[in-house]
Amino acid sequence: MTRFVARSFFLIGAVAAGCAPQNGVVEPPGSGMAGSGPVVITGAAGLCGGGVASGGARAVFPGMSFPPGFGSPSTPQVGATHTAADAPPAISGGTLRIMADGNTAVAADPDRDQVYVVDLAKRTLTFTVALQHGDEPGRLVIDAAGRAHVALRRGGALVTIAPTTGVIVERRNVCAAPRGVAYDAANDLVHVACADGQLVSLPAAGGAATRMLQLDSDLRDVVVDGANLRVTRFRSAELLTVDATGKITTRVTPPPFRSVDTRGGQLFTASAAWRAMEMPTGGVVMVHQRGLMDDVQPSPGGYGGLSTCDAIVQTAVTVVAPGQDPKTGPAMAGMVVPADMAISADGNRVAIIAAGNATNSETAGGAPRLPRVFVTDMSSATDQMIGCTNDGVHGPCLPVAGAVAGPGVPVPPAGASGDVPAGADAGAP
User: Fold this and answer.
1) Residue 211 CB burial class (10 angstroms; 0-12, 13-18, ≥19)
2) DSSP annotation of 80
């Protein structure tokens, strides 16, 4: 996850051209669902715009016609299965922070129980900080003094590191399962949200906790929003507002969602708040999933259909601004397991990570083909007038018959190697 999150920070603010239209005939890599044969791509949205709302892309096979939104006729290859001596950590994000100098990055590695300090200008690793086996470092923040505070998801502690020396300054027990962490500059406190419902506040300079609250269980992220704290719950995607006295004053969830562009207007509700972050202008932005509330039919098309917009689980972005109702955006088809995101300094750009697409290939041993990083503007990510469209702005460009519409960059051939190939990073101009 650290590698994915780092990529998202570098992409924020980058200029990407729109997804290029292309007409042509491409041979699929093997037999399709309805037999072998050419895939004909026509229209201005041949490679980007596979969602139902945008139209234009059609895959044609002998005796069978597919509507817009059908991506690739091949079965994804997800790689070999490996057995580890120790169970791998759960997928989580929030493991990377850039320090105030703009040149130093601090990244947590939950798989190896380490924290890295990196010089971005020199592209060199400055320090590797070894933690205890099984600590599973997760979310982290940087305080005003430049100290890094890392939540240890299985270590049950908050570890403080000096990035200038790579030395562990202090390790403090907080709760059994720390999840979210936030720095409160006004009070020089570090707030830690725990899976068991505890919200613990500790002095950034060190020492014992100054406040411990018991809230609802399954807490995920904590965000400082003026004098209040905003705390998310993971499975329900509920956002709690906690005032300065420790009282929960409001509870909100992303609103229900219907669109004719997704399963003909069936009802979806929010769940799985993967990541929540503060907005520079106040409030919170959350990347989460939405699930189908209607019955799932155990028949062809019941779980997803031929359109990329018809999956029974969606990825979406919701913004909760102070004093306003939640504003939720379109279904981002193809973004599987949105484990993390990054926000630009002005709050106008967002990068979303699709951890579930990390090994998804159309050929055995080939490079991942689905987008793993999607960059767009915040207004498009929360556009309430759009239901679902893979136009590179409201949703990522998706593979069509073995090709991906890259934003003004060449598409790598099947099987190409490299970390997050350019053709897999679809973003807005």
Assistant:
1) exposed
2) -
Q: Compute the distance between CA of residue 318 and CA of residue 327 in angstroms, rounded to an integer.
A: 5
Q: What is the DSSP letter of 32?
A: B
**Which residues, 6 or more positions from 421, have their beta carbon under 8 angstroms from its beta carbon?**
367, 368, 412
**Given strand 239-242, what is the order of strands in its sheet?**
219-225, 228-233, 239-242, 248-252
Mean pLDDT over all residues of the chain? 79
Cα separation, 277 vs 262, whole angstroms: 27
How far is it, in rounded angstroms, from Cα 304 to Cα 316?
17
Give CA–CA dist 250/216, Å, rounded: 13
DSSP class of 93:
-
| Cα(232)–Cα(34) distance, integer angstroms | 44
Q: What is the pLDDT of residues 41-88, one digit of tens each?
A: 222 233 464 333 333 233 333 333 333 333 444 466 667 788 888 888
Q: CA–CA separation, 6 vs 121, rounded Å?
A: 14
Task: Please give the single-letter amino acid code of residue 102.
Answer: G
Extract the tokens encoding 39: 């895939």
Q: Which two tokens mark 165?
A: 């020396």
- Name residue, tokens 């005032």: 243
Cα dihedral sign, 259-263-264-270: negative
Check: CB of residue 261 under 8 Å from CB of residue 267. Answer: no
Q: In 279-312, at which residue ranges do the beta strands (DSSP E only) sit? A: 284-292
CA end-to-end span of the chain, whole Å? 25
Whether pTM exceeds 0.85: no
Of 257, 280, 281, nearest to 267 (Cα)?
A: 257
What is the 3 state secondary structure string of 327-361? Answer: EECCCCCCCCCCCEEEECCCCCEEEEECHHHCCCE
The per-residue pLDDT for range 315-340, each reduced to its tens digit, is: 999 999 988 899 999 999 989 999 99
What separation in angstroms does the CA of 380 have from each of 3, 44, 274, 395, 409? 25, 20, 20, 9, 22
Nearest Cα to 405, choosing from 419, 426, 388?
426
Asked if residues 132 and 141 have their Cβ atoms less than 8 Å apart, the reply is no
| Residue that has been written with the tokens 């919200």 in this structure | 199
In tens, the pLDDT along 95-133 reads 999 999 999 999 999 999 999 999 999 999 999 999 999
Number of Cβ within 10 Å of residue 29's Cβ equals 18
